[in-house]
């Protein structure tokens, strides 16, 4: 499995692995793909700096990337405290009542409250870029469209290419107009923030529209070599996988609370996801659990806009993680969750994907 | 482009074309695929009989199939008049008011009202099967899951294989348990009645679950050879296309009112569809127009269950067709509508698809 992106980025396989875990990201890079570390959870830039030091030392000299979250429209800025005053009491009461009804305990005394993820803020995302450019990163990806043009230009000044996710053709065209180097076509079936057009339709549309201006990666529904072959048949130059790495042994390292989440993912089928605004305020696909069902009940309030919704549910997410109940998980994941049937090492997933890709291409050759 | 289905069904390419038009169905069969005529519009079995006589004479001796609509759960039976009494006055008033607001004229005096499509009724669908089995059909497909087992057995007694559409793995398993010979994996992106799982995920899931018990066709998002290659990479033995044939010259024959509809489809992008219950009472993907938008307004009533909703909007559909306004079309179509950029002969579409499939497979071979 080789495309022009392999030489360009110095990777063995055009498999881009997005993950919030440095252990997973490093393992993806060591296995021949490009591990892309999600930065949104780092409220403190110094913590990101330490983690990227670790990445520099633990990727066996292979390239890796980072993923920041900069919405195209600059959202409200402010500290968690300032923004918190914008959250209606009705919403806070609903969250408290729902957690009680779902049997999610309070946090133990002394448990630090992280105060919500601020990585959605432009200022915080910019600090992520500043930190990352001091490391040997091979890619900056933006999960919410084009980063500001000056950020793209700074990355280019460091010889770092920029990728941006697109759920529609017009988004993709805006990205390349802004100087983005790699477009990630993110289909409806993907986990996290995602649009309404499925990969089978969206990917070749974006490939045709972008043409020679940028290679396109396929995101949404990829978890096997057959799916990677389908993506390359549709014109992708590589695949972008996120959900699939959640069911890995590496994901558990340094994440003691991952066990219930992995149990829930392994048990889930492809129909067990829901696209909802309750995670961040923008439509994102999550695992369907008792938590997401509570938010779709008739008495539930409408989710708040970004970044307020994530601040609203930040402590709830902490409590849910600590509770360790697979039926109350709050986790972004794509429809590919139906294929995540066991927890494996990253290298096993990569090895199987590459072998399956080769046999799929051979099989297709016989149908020519 | 050849799979085992070609020899089994006596077709040149494993391209199954669903269409309500006998002119399109015959052209698909003549072009080397399998034209599958939708029967749901035939309230009168004798009219279907005459049209199948025409198919027998105009397919150049090539095989063709029929598509009936038998819901798995038997819906209410009765004449249009009896059923009409179950429609609330509020719904009738909304339809009248909406058509007036959209500028859709009344039908001219003397225009026959067809009284709604009754093909959704089990009794009518059974009459379609009775008629079709007296013709040289090569396939009976059911758009809404497994037909009753006795219908499958009657088809088999005539050496006619049966296909059934599935939007989830459990549906597919029920079909093969019931004796269905071909499973059509219908992804979220498809037009008409469709589920929530996208083809990229659904298709390989169904292929794996069904195994050797039945070949699987890919429906949803197919309109090019690249997409056909992706489908075969994912394990399909052929493709099932519906929407794409709506933008053909053959579709206009005998359908004077098709012009506004085709104008609307050619102008639409992939984002211009909506999945709604307003067409039949079950979720179906339609072109987004001022008609579908009116039904999603806050003052719109909830759609009625099948078969009442279709009876409710039957005359509205007639008036809309007669009005010839592309902005008020009521038309099932998939997200592939974004690729339908001109009206062409069926044979051109087939030729381009087959050539594009071959070049895609060749290109993939170089990425091995």
UniProtKB/TrEMBL annotation, chains A, B:
Would I find Oxidoreductase among this entry's keywords?
Answer: yes
Q: Which Pfam families match?
A: NMO
CDD domains associated with the record: NPD_like (cd04730)
Keywords from the named record:
Flavoprotein, FMN, Monooxygenase, Oxidoreductase
**Keyword Flavoprotein found:** yes
Q: Source organism's superkingdom?
A: Bacteria
Q: What Gene Ontology molecular-function terms does this entry list? A: nitronate monooxygenase activity
List, alphabetically, the InterPro entries matched: Aldolase_TIM, NMO
**Gene3D superfamilies with a match to the protein in the record:** Aldolase class I (3.20.20.70)
Q: Which PANTHER family match?
A: 2-NITROPROPANE DIOXYGENASE, MONOOXYGENASE RV1533-RELATED
Query: What's the protein here called?
Result: Nitronate monooxygenase
Origin species, per record, is Amycolatopsis suaedae
